[in-house]
């Protein structure tokens, strides 16, 4: 059966390549079995993002403590016209697309005649979020063609259409959720897939005072805590597990040695969890944690080393005035600049 389907988004329809159709439960079961079988139990952060998790993350992005989204949108707003200048007849591919806030700034900076020649290709692990975003964009820009890709960008980048030149966007410092080796591998894969005149727009969250970083992941309203715990809801819903969500507390702290915020779920008591679809029972001791996410922070030197080792050249560096966040426009090393 083909993974390409056409989905109605109201008055229009869009083609969607669904790389996860029928595969989410089996891949989740494999990841849960592997991660919860380790001494330091882990769950991959990509499983935060079911429909509820995606909505919670949108709430996080609006929180006063969470500076990341505001900082990046400020940069995009200032340089959107420059980023869109002269772009015609191409695909704008947003990796890990989520909500439309940032990409809308770019499309607003383009003329209608430009947008008519473009195709927007959002890639997201949550089909519901992707389709909601597509509906919203079609209302704002009816002349814009859209082709959605429901998939995991760590393993489905080869399913992104490649018949035209492409501009990639990877916002939110999502690269910070990768370990060093994983980040290098992902970036190298993107660089290798790029052609002459393609570019890659990527955000990096910068090092800053520890109190500011820790506060961003421990908001006073408890939204980040609910987001973190939602990964247990996903496991319960998809794998028929019996996690007691209230039996775990949210934990987020700065790991200075690794230069990253770590998010964990801490067991508040001894317990046993049964996960039938993964064919396992998991024992937790009080205060034992599940490591759910890393959010690495970067120095300019580390960014330059990472992107150059992956096969990129830095075409332009956009740095927020208070240096909280950076946006880089990259091209594949050895190709003609655009």
In short:
This protein has 338 residues and is an alpha/beta fold. The chain has helices at 24-35, 51-62, 67-84, 101-109, 112-116, 127-140, 180-193, 210-216, 223-239, 300-309, and strands at 4-8, 13-18, 41-42, 90-95, 118-124, 145-146, 148-150, 166-170, 199-205, 248-255, 260-267, 271-275, 280-284, 289-296, 312-319, 325-332.
Ordered list of secondary-structure elements with their pairings:
Blueprint lengths: L3 E5 L4 E6 L5 H12 L5 E2 L8 H12 L4 H18 L5 E6 L5 H9 L2 H5 L1 E7 L2 H14 L4 E2 L1 E3 L15 E5 L9 H14 L5 E7 L4 H7 L6 H17 L8 E8 L4 E8 L3 E5 L4 E5 L4 E8 L3 H10 L2 E8 L5 E8 L6
Parallel strand pairs: 2-7, 3-14, 4-5, 4-8, 5-6, 5-7, 8-9
Antiparallel strand pairs: 1-2, 9-16, 10-11, 11-14, 12-13, 15-16
Helix pairs in contact: 2-9, 3-4
Q: End-to-end span in angstroms?
A: 40 Å
Query: Which ranges are low-confidence, i.e. pLDDT below 50, for 5 or more consecutive residues?
Result: none
Task: Tell me the total number of β-strands.
Answer: 16
Major sheet attributes: 10 strands, mixed
Radius of gyration: 20 Å
Count of the domains: 1
Q: Which of globular, elongated, flat, extended, rod-shaped describes the shape?
A: globular
Our estimate of the beta-strand percent is: 25-35%
CATH topology: Rossmann fold
CATH class reads Alpha Beta
User: Class by helix and strand content?
Assistant: alpha/beta
The averaged pLDDT comes out at: 92
SSE string, helices as H and strands as E: EEHEHHEHHEHEEEHEHHEEEEEHEE
- CATH 2nd-level architecture: 3-Layer(aba) Sandwich
> Mind telling me the CATH superfamily name?
Vaccinia Virus protein VP39
Helix tally equals: 10
**Helix percentage:** 25-40%
């Amino acid at each position: 059966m083909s993974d390409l389907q056409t989905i109605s988004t109201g008055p229009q329809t869009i083609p969607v390549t669904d790389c996860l159709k029928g595969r989410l439960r089996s891949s989740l079961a494999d990841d849960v079995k592997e991660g919860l079988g380790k001494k330091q139990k882990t769950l991959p952060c990509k499983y935060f993002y079911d429909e509820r998790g995606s909505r919670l993350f949108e709430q996080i992005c609006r929180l006063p403590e969470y500076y990341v989204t505001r900082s990046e949108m400020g940069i995009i707003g200032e340089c959107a016209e420059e980023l869109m200048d002269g772009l015609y007849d191409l695909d704008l591919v947003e990796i890990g697309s989520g909500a439309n806030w940032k990409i809308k700034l770019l499309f607003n900076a383009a003329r209608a005649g430009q947008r008519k020649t473009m195709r927007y290709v959002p890639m997201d692990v949550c089909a519901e979020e992707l389709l909601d975003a597509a509906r919203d964009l079609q209302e704002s820009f009816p002349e814009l063609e859209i082709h959605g890709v429901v998939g995991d960008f760590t393993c489905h980048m080869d399913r992104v259409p490649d018949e035209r030149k492409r501009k990639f966007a990877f916002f939110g410092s999502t690269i910070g959720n990768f370990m060093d080796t994983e980040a290098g591998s992902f970036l190298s894969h993107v660089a290798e897939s790029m052609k002459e005149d393609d570019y890659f727009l990527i955000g990096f969250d910068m090092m800053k005072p520890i109190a500011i970083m820790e506060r961003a992941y421990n908001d006073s309203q408890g939204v980040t805590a609910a987001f973190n715990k939602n990964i247990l809801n996903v496991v319960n819903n998809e794998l028929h597990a019996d996690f007691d969500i209230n039996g775990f507390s949210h934990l987020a702290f700065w790991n200075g040695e690794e230069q990253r915020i770590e998010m964990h779920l801490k067991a508040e008591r001894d317990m046993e969890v049964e996960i039938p679809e993964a064919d396992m029972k998991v024992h937790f001791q009080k205060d034992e944690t599940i490591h759910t996410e890393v959010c690495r922070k970067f120095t300019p030197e580390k960014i330059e080393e990472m992107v150059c080792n992956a096969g990129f050249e830095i075409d332009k560096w956009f740095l927020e005035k208070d240096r909280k966040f950076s946006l880089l426009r990259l091209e594949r090393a050895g190709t003609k600049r655009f």
